[in-house]
C-alpha cells in the first residue's frame, strides 16, 4: 500500500471501502470531470465500488493502479495507471482533481511520485499521458514533468456522445530526472 504526504495532501491507494467517498466526489464534481473522462455514473456507491474493485484486481495482477488524493481527510481526486503492460514495460498515467484543489501543485507532485515508482521501482521504460487538446491543466502537468508531445489521435476518445481528439505525450525512463523540487 502506498501512502505519501504532499504538503497538506495525502496520496494513498483507493480501496473498495472508499466507494462512498468516491461516489460523493463524483456527485459533487462529476460534471467537471466528465468533460474529460470516458467514464461516468460513479455517483452511485455500487458503481464506484465496482470501479474500485477493478483496480484492486488490476493491482494484484500488476496491470493497474489507482490512488486517492485527500486534503484534510476529504477525497478531492485521484491519480491512476489505467494500464500497465509489464511485457512492453509501458504504462499510461492519468488524473482527476476537484477544482477546489487545483493550482497548488498537488497533481504534479503526485504524478511525479508515480513516475518515480514506475521507472525506479517497477522498471518501466515508458509512461504515456493522454489528454484532450482542450484540457489545458492536464497538458501543463505533462509539460512540467518533461513529457514529450508525440501527436494527436483524431476522434478516438469517446466522451458522452461526442468523439474527441486525444493528445499522446510520453516520458522515457532515461528522460526522468526524478521528483521536481518545490519552488
From TrEMBL:
The highest taxon in the source lineage is Bacteria
SUPFAM superfamilies to which the protein is assigned, alphabetical = Acyl-CoA N-acyltransferases (Nat)
Against Pfam families, the record matches this protein to: Acetyltransf_3
Q: Which residues form the N-acetyltransferase domain?
A: 24-167
State the InterPro entries in the record: Acyl_CoA_acyltransferase, GNAT_dom, Ribosomal_N-acetyltransferase
The protein's name in its UniProt record? GNAT family protein
